[in-house]
Amino acid sequence: MLMEAACLGIEVHGGGVRAVVSWSDATVVVLPLDALGGAGWADAGLGAAGVMSDAGRDEVRRDVPLAGPELVERFRRVRRAAVGVAGGVPASVTVVVSPGQGPRQLPMLRHAASVAGLGVVDVLSVPVAVGWHLLAGGVWLAVGASVLVLTMDGGCAATVLRRTAEGFEVVASVDAGTVAAELADGVAASGDVLVREVARRAMVGAQVPSGMFDLVCAVGPDVGAGVGRQLAQVCGVEPMLVAEPELAPVLGAVQRGPAAGWRGRPAGGGVGWRDMAGVVLPALASLGLFAQFVAGGQRYGPREKLESGFLLAPWGVLAFAAVFGLVALAGGLLLAADRYRLADEPGAGGLRWVRGRLEAVALVGAAAGAAVLAAVYALMAASFFDLDIGGLLRWSVLPVLPAAVALAAVAVVMWRQAVPPAGSWVDWLRFPLFAVVTAGVGAALIGWDETGVPSLVQPLAWQLYQWMPGGPLTVIGPVGRLGGGLVGVAVALLVVRRPLLRLVLGLPLAVLVAVVLSWRVTGTVAVGFAFAVAVWWAVRAVVPVLRPLLLRPAPAADGRVAPAVAGDDPQRGPYAGSPAGFPAGARPDADRGGWDGDGAGPR
User: Are 33 and 18 in contact (CB under 8 A)?
Assistant: First the structure.
């Protein structure tokens, strides 16, 4: 079974592997180390200060990658563990390797992954994966920004990255083994000297002066407080502290998202079938349910008279129609904004900053448009039945308001944070299609049991009545209870993400809704589904806000946190990608406003 939404990230080094599984909703599970065949992190011989001691200097090259049958066996164990967690083979696999890996090792690594059953894998270096981890955590890096990443995992390597429109490119990389071999006789090649010299040579190779880095950080299981002090002395920038630095590379592998061609959307910029279905299916459900409401409603009382009549109709079906209209509008407008927004190119200036937020404007328009659509439904029904519009507005507009507010909250997050949590905002906000199908069919079955419309359901009803002879004696018979169970399943699909939790919650919820469903509570079931949709979008708004906290390390013993981590600039926000460490007025754009000197603010 192929799990399209699951991504697998694997970090390979001399000591073994580390792997995580991620889904499109930013859920990440770290695979247990015992399932991968051992702890896997080599001892680097570090001193108490967090830098390499003299005893560990001779072993600085121990980060030689696994190879041959041993690597194949490790990959097989990772695959078995990932299948157990994800319920199937992940659709995308990214392997992270140390900066020193050359072109000779990569074909062997890809061959080992293929033999182990992982298929075609994408390969990233540790510094590039760390860059994606920082972006996913809320760090803003403009195109052209320079980043120095120090990797300490059995060795020491410094890499300078440059942010590009597509990702990151490696400008310079220096390994501590080469530096230690080239040091002159009589120079103490201690851990402090190696860290400073490796960082200095990477700066020289990249031609980035001291104090001009946009961000500096250190990752790996061997990072300590001493490393940060050494980097600050050489780079002139206070390093950003990363919580759990040993997990940063492998998390970045899945936070970057799959390579082009893995997702439903084609790489050429067209609209994928899943995106198109995410608009067409809820639109058809909305129109069909509204038609069922109008066709199945029965008006009592004289028309066009002063005496007001009353309407006997499946009110919950009208609420379902309004909610599905909101889902269709959100998907359609987001796709349109994502397709035609300006590309993230250097030098686009303030225009790119504005157009890059068209998706946020599209979501606000969808929230407002859904309220208008619900009011139009009420107006058309009021005209058709010749009734006051007040009751119809209560059942069409009010159920969509919580979801519309949650959608507006997502738009606010998108406006303030340009980096999406999962490849693109379209992927992050793609509404579950199976939930649309189950809820739409369930709502139609409930409406049929109340009105008998459409007549196409009659053969199914006849068969169910054979199994439940007492069904015709009640208003809500077996057909409606089957529909209520489907709505309960849809709610479980929206509330939880893991397959096991969906089974644990969905089955009891479906049975509960089917058992308690009656003629007077069908509207309550519709409102409950509307609240589940609101919760789904609220989670999409909350997760990007909380994810930067993953990068926030625990406070030190004295309660202080580095300024680069605890930045509270209201304009730039936390993790603003322009960390502390620059003296006042040292940056060339300090007196011109904005981050790029154009006064346009972050982009």
Answer: yes
At residue 49 the predicted structure's pLDDT band, cuts being 50, 70 and 90, is very low
pLDDT band at 126 (very low <50, low <70, confident <90, very high): very high
What is the residue whose two structure tokens read 């603010």? Answer: 601
Give Cβ neighbours of residue 589 (< 8 Å, ≥ 6 apart).
Answer: 595, 596, 597
- pLDDT tens, residue by residue, 305-350: 666 778 889 999 999 999 999 999 999 998 888 765 444 443 444 4
Residue 22 φ/ψ, nearest 5 degrees? -135, 150
* Section 558-581 average pLDDT: 35
The helix (run of H) or strand (run of E) holding residue 300 is strand 298-300
The token pair that represents 491 in the structure block? 């709610």
Strand 16-22 to 2-13 pairing: antiparallel
- The single residue listed with the structure tokens 């400073």 is 196
List the structure tokens of 188.
Answer: 């103490």
Distance between CA atoms of residues 477 and 446, nearest Å: 9
Give the separation between CA 508 and CA 516, rounded to whole angstroms. Answer: 12
Residue 93: what are its φ and ψ, rounded to 5°?
Answer: -125, 125
255-280 per-position pLDDT tens digit: 887 654 344 444 444 567 888 999 99
The position carrying tokens 């929230």 is: 367
**What are the Cα distances from residue 13, in Å, to 32, 239, 560?**
17, 24, 33
Whole-angstrom distance, CA of residue 498 vs CA of residue 507: 14
Name, in order, each residue with C-beta under 8 angstroms of 465's C-beta and a sequence gap of 6 or more: 471, 472, 477, 478
Task: Read off the DSSP letter of residue 298.
Answer: E
How many CB atoms are located within 10 Å of the residue 1 CB? 7
CA angle 328, 333, 337 (to 5 degrees): 150
From CA 108, how far away is CA 462, in angstroms rounded?
A: 62
Residue range 85-112: mean pLDDT, rounded? 81
